[in-house]
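User: I'm preparing a small set of examples for a lab meeting where we compare how different chains pack in three dimensions. I only have the primary sequence for this one, and I'd like the structure in token form so I can line it up with the others. Please keep the answer compact; I'll paste it straight into my notes.
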Amino acid sequence: MKFITSVCRLGGAKKATPKAILNLMNCDGLTIFHVKSHLQKYRVSQLMQQATEGITEQLDTKMNVHIVEALRLQMDVQNHLCQQLENQKKLQMRIEEQAKQLESMIKSQLKTK
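Assistant: Understood. Below is the structure token output for the 113-residue chain.
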């Protein structure tokens, strides 16, 4: 925890130097080589974290684009289905109307015989 606090006080992993970190930490038995090694590992972990966040943001953006496209397609299909349903209703009404006309024609034919 002292290491991270010292790095932050020195302006972050990019600006902090091993010597400055060592001076701020003021720990007995700690050498500049220990600090150099740890700082290098810390910088790598920071870079990996930033890269991971960047990839996650790109994936989120791509996923959002795909979701929007899928929703648009779904709406198109729904509109098409609504139009088909409307056409089916109109056809059903025509069939019923023609059935009434046929029934009327059959009744009139039967009366004339």
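A couple of notes for your slides: Helices lie at 2-9, 18-25, 32-112. The two ends are 108 Å apart (CA to CA).

User: Perfect, thanks.
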